[in-house]
Write a structure and sequence with these properties.
alpha+beta, six-stranded mixed β-sheet, four-stranded mixed β-sheet
Length: 260
């Protein structure tokens, strides 16, 4: 965070569950001891640091809401150190080595954005990044920058071609959210080996046209500092007025699990 601020960053986003290794690889009730309240030790420390550095901070934490109720949560801390609010991960995966349903209750904060010193920002977390509905709703709430703190990777024994397909799909879907909603998107992923997972890094930021502004390697830690020229949002939405031309009268079936 200090290095980012020294390089001129106004907004810093940390990866999903950044304080520990990715513990949902196993189902172990002792891991619940890693959780903390919000506000709590991590947010209090980062609030002081944010105020000192004058940066907005996205801080993903393992939240203990109550005994037996835990969430995968991202806190939004403004540049004056105040806690703007938090988002609780809505889409919870349950796959081999990603046993998140064992740990996290689905979020109940809704899809919302927050006014900060760096602009109006929204946070969605990892598995949320595959759902266009979530990105659209934060755009409708005025988000200018959509951040995806993430912990996604390959199983250690997956073939190279399959790895390339998965990573390319991950980049493509988030670029599509930027295009469809006319906003900036930044994905912040882990990197390196943890147990039987190989996190693919590749953190990136793209503009409202989906153009990648910068991207990290897949096999090394990195710090990206990217200029998000917010006036481009207005121009993009004038050129391609997707939000204007939405047929809100015709989308009621989106509230159904499946048609048929």
């Amino acid at each position: 965070m200090r290095s980012a601020a020294d390089r001129g960053a106004d907004l810093v986003c940390l990866p999903e569950l950044f304080r520990t290794r990715y513990f949902p690889q196993t189902q172990d009730s002792q891991n619940f001891d890693l959780a903390e309240p919000v506000p709590g030790p991590t947010t209090e420390y980062l609030q002081k640091l944010a105020a000192d550095l004058r940066v907005v901070v996205i801080a993903p934490v393992f939240e203990r809401r109550a005994a037996g109720v835990y969430h995968n949560t991202a806190c939004v801390i403004d540049a004056d150190g105040s806690l703007c609010g938090h988002y609780r991960k809505m889409h919870i995966p349950d796959d081999p080595l990603f046993y998140e349903k064992f740990y996290f209750a689905p979020g109940d904060t809704g899809f919302r954005s927050f006014d900060t010193a760096a602009g109006r920002v929204a946070v969605l977390i990892c598995w949320d990044q595959w759902f266009p509905e979530a990105a659209r709703l934060v755009a409708l709430d005025g988000a200018e920058i959509l951040l995806y703190p993430t912990a996604i990777g390959w199983l250690r024994d997956e073939e190279e071609r399959e790895r390339e397909i998965q990573r390319d799909a991950w980049v493509t879907v988030q670029r599509a959210h930027a295009i469809a909603n006319g906003l900036f998107v930044a994905a912040v992923n882990r990197v390196g080996h943890e147990g039987d997972l190989v996190f693919w890094g590749s953190s990136f930021a793209c503009d409202p046209y989906g153009q990648i502004l910068a991207q990290s390697p897949s096999d090394a830690e990195d710090l990206l500092v990217v200029d998000c020229a917010l006036p481009r949002i207005e121009q993009k939405r004038r050129d391609w007025p997707f939000l204007r031309d939405r047929r809100v009268d015709a989308y009621a079936d989106l509230l159904k699990r499946f048609r048929g």
